[in-house]
Amino acid sequence: MADAKLQWFYTDSGHPDVDNYDTVILIHGMNWNTSSFDTIYPLAAPAGLRFVAFNRRGYPGSTPYTAEEQALLTSSDTTSHSLFYRKQGLAIARAVLEILADPALALPESGKVGVLGWSTGNWFVLALLSIMDDPELLPSERDTLKSRITHPILLEPASNHVGAYDPSNAYNPAAKPVPDALAIGRWATGYFEHPDPASRDPTRLNFKHYLSDPSPLIDRLEPAYIARTTLDASAIDGPLLLSKWREANERGTKEALRKVKDGLWTRVKSVSVIWGDRTFWLTPPALWALEDYSKELGGSLLEVKTVKGGNHFIPIDHPNETIAFVKEILSA
């Protein structure tokens, strides 16, 4: 699948055994490629769903960022960040349009279409939502997006990606100058008890101490699965976690929500959030920030679903709950 400049690698869960069905386009997280959705793929067809997941740029089979884009990404200049945000929103829009038009998939035009991001993938869903009125979109592209996309879904969004402020005592091993891959893996895939999440006080979250039972998912995965599913993408995804990106991420997230509220996405009525209440500390502040942004816009734009006992790796460790919530969201 390619346009004039960009090529995308994607996988497909297959045609459900029904004439009309809903499709969900999946955008993966940091360091984990489309294979991270393998656990939920077999559950799609029985639920009357079809999943199509594509590797983001810089992941195998998809076009890497240009030198110019990489410079924008790593810049300390907010203007450069906003330009990068816009460029990637447009790129994701065209990836989605190509999937919708691909004759090899032959997706039904009558079905609903969700776009689901997981973890870092949520940044790209929000970037997509933010560019609906961009002058670079062709009228035909805009019309197709308006008529086909019905449900944006944020699965386990992280605070950095929506522009939330990090508490001073925060901990993130992925942001260290020399990251420890195993430490990051156990921290990101672990289960955490947060003493008082209802307080909405990020300083009271559990930053470091994951449970031994359930153990971190990374310790239960087969080495062969990890080898084919992961890579070090810190150079292309890591900068989005840094504080210098906070302002642009906040602005982009608010723009995305505003364009939903203002009806620019004709068939989108709300933005759904799925999160696990035993996830790492980055997710609750993201949820709170999204709620605050929605309130600032004067409306209730969010539909929140909680996976009880869920960690950050819900698609892999809690596939049945993931499918159930996605089906529920698209059935509304």
Automatic annotation (TrEMBL):
GO MF: hydrolase activity
InterPro entries the record matches: AB_hydrolase_1, AB_hydrolase_fold
Manganese listed as a keyword: no
Domain of life where this protein originates: Eukaryota
AB hydrolase-1 domain span: 24-323
Short name of one Pfam family: Abhydrolase_6
Alphabetic keyword roster: Hydrolase
Stated name of the protein: Alpha/beta-hydrolase
Organism: Exidia glandulosa HHB12029
High-level lineage: Eukaryota, Fungi, Dikarya, Basidiomycota, Agaricomycotina
